Amino acid sequence: MKTLIFEGAGWEIAESAIVSGVGNCRIRTRIRNCDGRLIYLEMGCNMYSSEKKTPEFAKGFKVMGYVSHCFYADSEWDSSRSHSTNLYNYELSHYFEFSPESIIKWVNEELNCSFDELKVINDNSVRVHDTKEALCDCSEKGYIPYIDPEYNISLLGDIKPIRIDWKSRVGLYSLSYDFMYKQFPKWLTSALESEKRDISKFKYYVSFRWNVNGNIISAEVSAYENFGLRGVGLELVEPLINEIIN
Description:
- By secondary structure, the chain is of the alpha+beta class.
- 20% of the residues lie in helices and 28% in strands.
- It contains 6 helices and 12 strands.
- The strands form 2 sheets. Strands 1, 2, 3, 4, 5, 6 and 7 form a 7-stranded mixed β-sheet that branches. Strands 8-9-10-11-12 form a 5-stranded antiparallel β-sheet.
- Helix 4 packs across helix 5.
- It is globular, with a radius of gyration of 21 Å.
């Protein structure tokens, strides 16, 4: 039996903790999945006093669970963010029934795991932030430890940034609307509805930050017209570089 272990990080006698059968209203863990990737996961839950007060996204759940943090902890890039971009389907799987069975199912299906049972520990004998190791492991033998790929700012060659801060090692580069819309359709669609202007005419940018060796360590996309500043995942760095070059 493979046990999915969580630290109880909330209130173990909260009504939602008791009704759900989970044992705490806020739980967190660090998992090593089947592929050997190290994942930090934190979940919480809500109960609503009446159907009238229940928001649409929470309807149908006895106790509504949600993901507050879920990121690759073995990635220097992702470990500074609350959510790894492609780790799980944020749009479809952010809310779920907060129960032992549903949590195990969610973790196995979304994070590529194979746990059989759940255990929440509330006595402080398990503390996620006291270690960088996994609290529970379902990895297969012979996995290759993950190492972040490196993208050096020199890949941009002679292309000069629109603005650069040499002291902070930050450079600003222009992006096309077409590229932005392809990568962030929902973000730009919501911006279009709120701005009431033709956002295809906006000027879009990416800000790269790099270390002393020139390796890019973070990237944020934005528009100057007063909406949006969005950090991007490591998987978008190469497409961003190609967009700037081409």
